[in-house]
Amino acid sequence: MISFIKIIKTADDHAQAIEHLMVLMDAEPKSGSEEENELDVLALLIEQYEIKKFPMDKPSPIEAIQFRMDQQGLTRKDLIPFIGSAPKVSEVLNGKRSLSLSMIRKLHKGLAIPADVLIQEPEFAAEVCYNPEADIQWDAFPLKEMQSKGYFGDSKKPLKELKLYAEDLVRGFFKACPVEFHPEPMMMRSTAHFVDNDKQVDPLAIQAWQGKVLKVASEQDKTDKYQQGTVTEDFMRRLVQESWSDNGPLIAKEYLAKHGIDLVIESHLPKTYLDGAVCFKSNGNPVIALTLRHDRVDSFWFSLMHELAHIALHFDGSCDWMLDDFDAKSGDVREDEANAMARDVLIPASSWNLYSGAELSELTALAKLLNISPQIVYGRFGYDFDQWPKVRRHLKKVSPLFAL
Q1: Is the pTM value of this prediction over 0.85?
Q2: pLDDT tens readout for residues 11-20
Q3: What are the C-alpha distances in Å from 319 to residues 187, 237, 270, 272, 316?
Q4: Largest Cα–Cα distance in the chain?
Q5: What residue ranges do the domains of the chain occupy?
Q6: Which of 12, 151, 205, 263 could be 146's S-S partner, Cβ–Cβ 3.0 to 4.6 Å?
Q7: Helix boundaries (H) for 1-100
Q8: Vertex 39, ends 37 and 42: CA angle to 5°?
């Protein structure tokens, strides 16, 4: 009869089971006997308890690779297709170079090494197998510029290393973006509107910039809930009154936050040609992003009013983003409408017609009459009449306020 069979739950149960197992083994039970069956079942129960209570550590990635090499009789040369070159193989096996996601995916697929062994962080293991055939040119992202602007945290890798670990870095960046921004750039289904022009726009750079804008906006947690219909011409004119202050852009940021609108200043990436954009977060709050590509006070206020005009006039749920290049000729009626509203809010047409072609002293008087910064009037004068040499020295930069 089986005299000792029960689930092992405690250390005392384990000690008693081991003691009884030794007794059974010393008795050398006959094959097929009840004692032998008891011994087998007891050994299995002990093994299950020990696996659960004393799990063995996973091998390190290097140990796993070396084990597979011994198992299959592979040399370091045989690892080149998976790791990239003989020096890289040597650096990886000597612990001087970490595995990139690209290397891990190839080792997982080619040598059948478990993903959770090659990547010790379980939450990243799925990345190895996710869409392995996707034709994503990760090193085509503007990696150097993204690194310099803090997209990869404190990373300070040379360009060669950036390209080698491009997938890891870019995936990691998008993974840190808010959930409303798909972490797989090439699989995004964006409904962004962007003006058509002849420039060679880099869609990857634009997607990276969009992700950074939403990431920054998500960290600005002091923004109140936005109420539909908040942005009107009166709201915009009230805001422009703050332009008289040297800190006007910062005051505008605080004012917008109190009304549920995030203002993000994020410099543009190469081949994006962006001046500004507007989108909505998942909670319904608008986000206005300005690049300060034309770093002047007058440009800041026009760009801000233009994006606010889009919120007032055009966001009806049919477009997630509107991306603006003010140097381009769009032919889009929405851009014309936003331009007209922004210009009229800053300087009403009735007032501007009285002063067109004026001297700087008269332009300053107009600014005082409208209670706005004279730089806004100077900028309008320079733009409308191509008089930039006359006003340029009077125009100030905005970027020092935001420490770009």
Answers
A1: no
A2: 888 888 888 8
A3: 18, 26, 24, 19, 7
A4: 114
A5: 11-53, 78-129, 138-175, 185-349
A6: 151
A7: 11-26, 34-53, 61-72, 80-83, 86-93
A8: 105
